[in-house]
Specification:
By secondary structure, the chain is an alpha/beta fold. The chain has a single domain, classed as Aminopeptidase (3-Layer(aba) Sandwich). It contains 6 helices and 9 strands; from the N terminus they run ββαβββαββαβαβαα. α3 crosses α6. It is globular and about 55 Å long.
Length: about 270
């Protein structure tokens, strides 16, 4: 691979207590992974999330972004999930939901290589980013950034495991800021938080929230409706949404910095 599997972007200016995770924004499937597959084109990802959230480093966030497609191996899957199997259950997806991606089962060494490159490396970078922020701040807001195409009649879904991965107040600050930007926001509707945020549930000083944005906000709705294909890039819509989100995240982060110091470790509701 000519490029690194994970990009770690340092804050562009003073570091502030936010780490941004972008695990599904890339469609890059390099060799030798691509040659093992029946299809590598039109595999759906969280299209253009890296571009949509391109402002976060300027706000003082450390940004961890996967350069490998989720179809190499998905960082948002529990390591205890099946290593190889249908999307979305497995770490290495054998299908994209509609079609087979391989002629047969991959050999164990090929599966292990994919997981090491795209899953293990991603979480190593994420841990390093969170640890660096915790050395400088009493608490850290981790936002795991995704997009959705299913019709939910909302603009943004915030997933915090129904209060298990983030303090209610922390999720509330983010929700209020997004609502203030004119977005329709709901918590834990369909998307309650994947493995990336769930693994931080036991870390008292990390508030981990999955942020799902409707692709229709930055892409043609008709293109989004065709769920089997990539969504064409729409620079105007992307730029408009980016500005709305920039203001919202700046407001949320300012509120978080005021609230976080001195907050005791959170207690979680029982299942």
């Amino acid at each position: 691979m000519a490029r690194a599997a994970v990009t770690l972007r340092a804050p562009a200016g003073p570091r502030r207590p936010i780490v941004a995770s972008i695990p599904h924004g890339s469609a890059w499937i390099p060799e030798p992974f691509a040659s093992q597959m029946l299809a590598v084109e039109d595999l759906r990802t969280d299209s253009y999330t890296g571009e949509v959230y391109g402002f976060l480093a300027e706000l003082g966030a450390t940004v961890v972004e996967a350069r490998l497609s989720r179809y190499v191996a998905d960082p948002n899957r529990d390591p205890e999930a099946p290593a190889f199997g249908p999307f979305p259950e497995a770490i290495v997806a054998s299908t994209d939901g509609w079609r087979r991606l391989y002629a047969g089962r991959l050999p164990p060494e090929a599966i292990a290589g994919r997981i090491a490159a795209a899953h293990t490396a991603y979480h190593r970078a994420l841990d390093e980013a969170v640890a660096a922020h915790l050395r400088a701040a009493p608490r850290v807001l981790l936002v795991d950034l995704h997009s959705f195409g299913v019709p939910l009649d909302v603009d943004v879904v915030l997933g915090d495991g129904r209060g298990r991965t983030a303090a209610t107040e922390a999720t509330g600050l983010l929700e209020a800021a997004l609502v203030g930007a004119g977005l329709r926001v709901v918590r834990n509707l369909r998307f309650t938080g994947g493995w990336i945020v769930r693994r931080f549930a036991a870390v008292d000083r990390v508030d981990a929230v999955q942020v799902e944005v409707d692709k229709r906000l930055y892409a043609d709705p008709a293109a989004v409706a065709d769920r089997r294909r990539q969504v064409p890039r729409d620079p105007r819509r992307i730029a408009e949404l980016r500005e709305r989100l920039r203001g919202a995240f700046a407001a949320a982060l300012a509120g978080y910095e005021d609230w976080a110091p001195g907050i005791p470790p959170r207690s979680f509701p029982q299942p």
